[in-house]
Each structure stands twice: as structure tokens, then as C-alpha cells.
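User: If you would, consider this record:
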Amino acid sequence: MRFGYWMPVFGGWLRNVPDEGMDASWEYSRKLAQDSERWGYSLSLIAELNLNDIKGVESPALDAWSTAAAIAAVTERLELMVAVRPNFHHPALFAKAAANIDRISNGRLALNVVSSWWADEARQYGLQFDQHDDRYARTSEWLSVVDGLWSQDRFTFNGQFYQTQEAICSPKPAHHPVIYAGGESEKAKAMIASQCDAYVMHGDPADAIAPKIADMAARREATGKPAMQYGMAAYAIVRDSEAEAKRELERITTVSELPAGYANFDQWLSGTQLERELKIQEYSVSNRGLRPNLVGTPEQLRERIEEYEAAGLHLLLLQMSPQAEEMERFATQVMRTV
């Protein structure tokens, strides 16, 4: 299993805890990236949103790509999996800039291609926001243009969304960056199986992840391309006792004061008590991060990680809080003994 983590570009991951002791700043991100290499993490996912989805839209959010370029220059081994949304980046201009960042990192850049989901953000920035199937059609063209510029001396493309005429991208990347992507619709899975290298998923129990991996593996095999890699988001809490871990879980999932933008949360909390508890957890931590139940003692977490390995998972993309302290604890008590 490879262990990666989400760079805290939003100043944390907990919607119920206003101050997590990790501000959205270059200073914090730089130190965390450098420390994470020493602790043994192999990858950092740098999310791309111009508005802060975790702490509220008025709160700071670091720009993904300038942050990635800076981190590339001050680290040595960390794979930089940077999110990119095709409707926010023209593919030819993006290919040029990303190739340079890959050179700065000596071949450590990877892309997390996200077909945008936040319509209001796109409208605020005056950008196109496509309907669902059009988003994946745009992403497919976008990937074709980026790949063409990275692999051919001159590249011409005439599509529905993008056109290039004998475009040149030089220097090219030090290597062809790994393309990660996620999505659960038929359109998304078909595109990912044919054009990407790795499939990333929201958090779920191992018995729910296994059939998703099997489905994508079959789709990939049908394309005749090499096997894919599989990753999953998860929130981790490791403590010396299960009781301590559960107390921390209760702390982060207790809803006290809702931030701006969540005024309808009470209406959303309908259904049985179990359904309400699940919804609170989904609200508290993004990307279904608590569903994998990486909450407990080091021994319990190692057992659950082994279940994910058996299901075919290769990469865990972890969120923790406060991130630096918890990442060091997780590395010492879990990673070094898996």
C-alpha cells in the first residue's frame, strides 16, 4: 500500500471545527511537504478550488498550481498529484505550464483530472460550466490535446471544445505524468478506463470498494491498455485505545455552529437516527472520508488496510487533523508496520 495525503490548502478538513491549527498558507504547506517525505509518505494530493469548500467561501484557499510549482522546488521524492479542472484551464497552455512543473520536480508531477462539480464557483469566475455528460466530453478532448502536445513535436486538433494548429510544447515533461481521475457515472468510468492511468474513489468499506475495482479492471482490460492503479480517500484517526479514537471521532462530528452556506442542513437531516448519524459524518468530513472506518488502534487500522489491499487498492489518500501531528503519529504507528 502507498500512503498519500491531501495538502491542507483549505486550512483543514473539518467543517465542525473552525480552527484546526493548520492555516491555509505557503509556510504550513512547505513544512508539511518536507516533513512528509521524512515520515515516509509517497504522494500529496493538491486540490484545486478557488473557493473554500471546507471552511466557507469567505475563507482563504491556496491556489493549487502555484503551490505545486513551489513544493516541487523544495522537495525531492514526493509525487505531486495536482487537481486540474478542464473548464478552468485551456489544454494547450496548461500542457506548457505543467511540463515545466514536471521538469522542476524532476518527473514527480501527476494529474488528478476533475470534471467540475461546483457550478456557482464557475459562474463567479465567469467560466463555462457544462452539463454532466458534456463535462466528460470536454474532459476527453482536453486529455487528448494535453497528451498530443506532450507526445508529438507539432499537434493539430479539431474538436467540439478545443482546436490547435501545429502547436508546439517544448520542453516536454521529464516523464508523462500519471493521470488520475474519479467518477461513478457510466460516462466517467468509460472515459477513465480508456484515457487515464489510475482510478480514485471516495471512501467506502472494503467490500464496497472491491466490486468497483473489479468493474474498472474489466473495463480497462477491454481497452488493451496496461492495468490501472486504484486509490481511495479516507480520514484517519489512530489512538492507543479504541475508546480514545471514538472520543476523537465524536469531537470532530459534533455539529455546534454551522458555517455560512449550510443553512439548510437541518432540513437535510431527515430519516432514522442511523441515517442522521451517517449524514452528519458525511457533512463533517469531505469525500466520504469516514466510511472506511480508519478509526481505532494501530492494530485495528493495519487490519483494515490489509482488507483494502486484498480488495485491490494501491493508494490511500489520507486526511487528518491537526495534519502534521496526526500524519507523524500515523506514519510511526501504522505505516512502518504495515
Notes: The two ends are 8 Å apart (CA to CA).
